[in-house]
Amino acid sequence: MRAPWRQARHSRAFTLLELLVVLVIIGIMVSFAVVSFGVLGGDREAEQEARRLTAILTQARDEAALQGRDLGLRLEPTAYEFMSLEPRRGGWEAIADDDLLRRRELPDGLRMRLWLESREVLLEQPKQESRKTVATPTPQIIVLGSGEIVPFDLEIAREGGGTRWRVAATPEGELLTDSPDAAT
Question: For residue 137, which of 87, 94, 103 has the smallest C-alpha distance?
Answer without folding.
Answer: 94
